Amino acid sequence: MGMGLLAVNKLLQRVISGLVKTGNLSITGPDGQKHTFGDGTGDPVHVHIKTGRAARAMAIDPMLAVPESYMNEEIDIIEGDALDLLRVGFQNMSPSGIDAAFSKAIEGFRHAFRRLQQVNTTTRSKKNVQRHYDLSGDLYKLFLDKDMQYSCAYFESPDVTLEEAQLAKKRHLAAKLRLKQGQNVLDIGSGWGGLGLYLAKNFEVDVLGVTLSTEQHGVATERAQTEGLENHVHFEIKDYRNISERFDRIVSVGMFEHVGLNHYRTFFDKCAQLLKPDGVMVLHTIGRSGPPYATNAFIRKYIFPGGYIPALSEVMPAIEKSGLVVNDIEILRLHYAETLKHWRARFLANRDKAKAIYDERFCRMWDFYLAGSEAAFRWQDLVIFQIQLTRKNDTLPVTRDYIQETEKELALHDCGQRQASEAVTTKPVPKKAAPKRKTTAKKA
């Protein structure tokens, strides 16, 4: 019959006691008994474990069992929320996870066999993308900014809005590309098209965006047509490995996490092949500030199958062998934590709408995904790598001043456009037109 409830409770207590040295965590077990862990500092968090099955799973493999049990309503967070629980856990553990013997063995196994989880052939890559990015577009509209940027924003100051921070991200990437009018740009993993449209509008370049998501492709294509840019921005459902045209510029944002460790050499070899001799590439990807480690089990199973977050030591050898030259590496540290904070607040504010699209289990899963991701960027070793690459070492200026100068010019331009837009929408209606406008409004 397996471990009895008493044995399970004792094992779980031992695991949590070994982990939680700081913080204020209370756990009520399936037997109704309440136990407190930590030194009492910080906001209290109280978890109710409802079933013996959940307790047993959490004692052996907490990194997967805690979110899984939360999804299945086998545990409830009575005081605090998912982020508060994760804060206590993450602030007490090493980046590689929990040090309990069972858990350590399981995580070590996952690390050892991580390559087998990332055999991302063209067929499998498309299926993996469909699992996440072909969810209802209405879901993403509930928590993303108006431009549907589903990647790390760039917070130039802590008090800016999500929309402003995402616009700043596009400026930052554009500045690093050092674009010139008439160039052609490849956007690998083009999402809902916001970055490609921004580059075409502001630099008069031609953009090819490739994605494996049918949902994203449809939205991006419609946006290009609506904005009258269909002659300059074209989106295709295509794997980057099947492209043959050469480009002046290549940008890839939030796609490299899906490439998989086995395919890094293929990715950079292909980019070197696609990039013209005087071309520039900018790669924006989640990475680890610490050593290599397996993808979080919950994220891999439920959110990003086939995904992998690399350490810089895993990326650089593939770049070096491809012949590409690294011009600049910037590490964005807490920017994604702040982005996820905004996303989660918006998601929770629209939770009932998300539940109407899917169900309660999905809402719990998504809440834990957003909370867990924020926690990993805030208290663990996740960061963003922005790597600027060329094929020659004299393609770009020898100082970085041009990046800041271009960003300032773009910021002034973006500000001017926003003010012009606001002036149009707030323009007072002439008195003669007032009755007509009122009538139209009534008809609508």
Short description:
The chain is α/β, with parallel strands linked by helices and 444 residues long. It has helices spanning 5-19, 52-60, 62-71, 82-90, 101-112, 122-133, 137-141, 162-177, 194-203, 214-226, 264-274, 297-303, 312-322, 335-349, 351-357, 360-379, 401-425, 434-443, and strands at residues 25-28, 34-37, 45-49, 75-79, 184-188, 206-211, 233-237, 247-253, 275-288, 325-332, 382-390. The model is unreliable at 99-114 and 429-444 (pLDDT under 50).
Number of strands: 11
* Quaternary structure type: single chain
- Rg estimate, integer Å: 24 Å
Mean pLDDT score:
87
Report on the biggest sheet. Answer: 7 strands, mixed
In DSSP terms (H or I, runs of 4 or more residues), the helix count works out at: 18
Distance between the termini: 66 Å
Structural class: alpha/beta
Percent in strands: 15-25%
Helicity, as a percent range: 40-55%
Describe the structure.
By secondary structure, the chain is of the alpha/beta class. The protein has 18 helices and eleven strands. The strands form two sheets. It has a seven-stranded mixed beta sheet with strand order 7-6-5-8-9-11-10, with helices on both faces. Helix 11 (264-274) links the parallel strand 8 and strand 9 (275-288). Helix 1 (5-19) packs across helix 2, helix 2 packs antiparallel against helix 3 and helix 4 packs parallel to helix 16. The longest helix has 25 residues, at 401-425. It is globular and about 70 Å long. The N and C termini lie far apart (66 Å). 46% of the residues are buried. Mean pLDDT is 87; it is low at 99-114 and 429-444.
